[in-house]
Design a protein that fits this description.
Blueprint lengths: L1 H17 L9 H31 L5 H22 L39 H35 L10 H24 L4 H25 L7 H28 L5 H17 L17 H5 L6
Length: about 300
Amino acid sequence: MLLVGYAVVLVLMVLLGANTNKFVLLNHTRTQLIMSFVSGIMLGIAVFHLLPHALYAAQGHVSVDFVALWLMCGLIVMFLLQRVFHFHQHDFDETPQHCTSTHSHGGAHDHGHEHSHNHDASHSPAELGGWGVFMGLALHSLLDGVALAASIQVDWLAAGHTGWTGLAGIGVFLAIFLHKPLDAMTIGMFMQRQGVRSTTRVLVLVAYGLLCPLAAGLILFGLPADITTPAFIVAALAFSAGIFLCIALSDLLPEIHFHTHDRGKMTLILLLGILLSFALKSIESIHERSPQLGATRDVLVEPEHHH
């Protein structure tokens, strides 16, 4: 089953990400390059995959304005989540056991930023602790599940009963896959600082890795057929595109636009991520013809039997 495979891979990536500093020294420069690549992937997936999926699926069912509305809703929801939980903390000091927490991707380094990053201490992510960070990223992961389910569903419909659907939703999954290790490092770091036992940390990280595929499975197989209408699918795709855009731009803009060092390398890595996401279009049948979304539950789930 496709989602089982995705779940196994995500859990492994989460556990690997949480233990990355045991094997690789993630200094500031390396972290920024990784973030630039992931931002490029997520930006490309939003523009080349999720948004076109939504527009194709909308044909004959809902208006382009409907797509635009849900795109904006996704962007605003993710923006508000980031404002409340401050959970994207991916920058590390030169020593692996320390992580900066003065702002979302900067911290103790002199980045040459030309704007102020002074924040009220009451809003510091360190105040939330590991559990608060986990809550924010858990909500984020559930929304990733919505994106994955919508992408898989549309790929199934586009392929029909005869097409190969072995890589359904692969573009969205790749973006989630690449982003999970960074989030896992954040969760693991804060929980370790709070003195949470290693066994508990592992269980929490496994649960975090499973949230996305579980949410996708609930949407694909657990919701009543009258809920998963064409309008629902379009809204989910557009909403997810807004989420991915917000994540990409919130990671991208503060890091590339305001950095005075490594700007060339970071821009190149960003473009490579965008090119990779564009190249993934070649294995998606939805870009060849528009899916028929006057679908019943049987049509939505039957392609799964091919896995």
